[in-house]
Amino acid sequence: VVHGGTGLNFDDIHAKTQHLFDEAARRGIATVGIGDGGNEIGFGLIHDTVREVLPAGAKCVCPCGGGTAARVATDVLVVAAISNWGGYGVATNIAFMLKKPQVMVTADTVERMLRNCVEAGALDGVFARPMLSDDGVPLAASRALADTLTTLVGVALSEVDSPGH
User: Fold this and answer.
1) Element (H, E) at 34
2) Of 63, 83, 99, 104, which alpha carbon lies 20 to 30 A from 142's?
3) Angle 47-10-109 (CA atoms, 0-180°, nearest 5)?
4) What pTM did the predictor assign?
């Protein structure tokens, strides 16, 4: 059963992407999981800890009673305060390593993605309503994070001719 972080059953409305990760593991393809609540793909890597630490980790609020701890492990697990923010961090690292700041997730891209999700009926992870926020954090904060990451990569990749750079 696919659960939300609070223990609700989302199985009927959630894509079954765990099968892709199961097949990748079977084929020896490296995988990365990004999450914030222990219920996301990748947290199988620390399944027992999620069951122990998170309130609904061992026992969810739906009739299955199985808990929210994800069973699917990945080779690498990125834990973030907000899953999307973890994704922006991974993308930032890739852009930096490739020295291609043009592939960064920009504030405008973040806003466009969130607006499209809301228009398609996606719900905020905290308020369970379609709204321009991500896990209860307003859009402005996600835009600010994207701007900050873009600035950091720009500065890191700049070629300023100074003894301190």
Assistant:
1) strand 32-35
2) 99
3) 90
4) 0.85
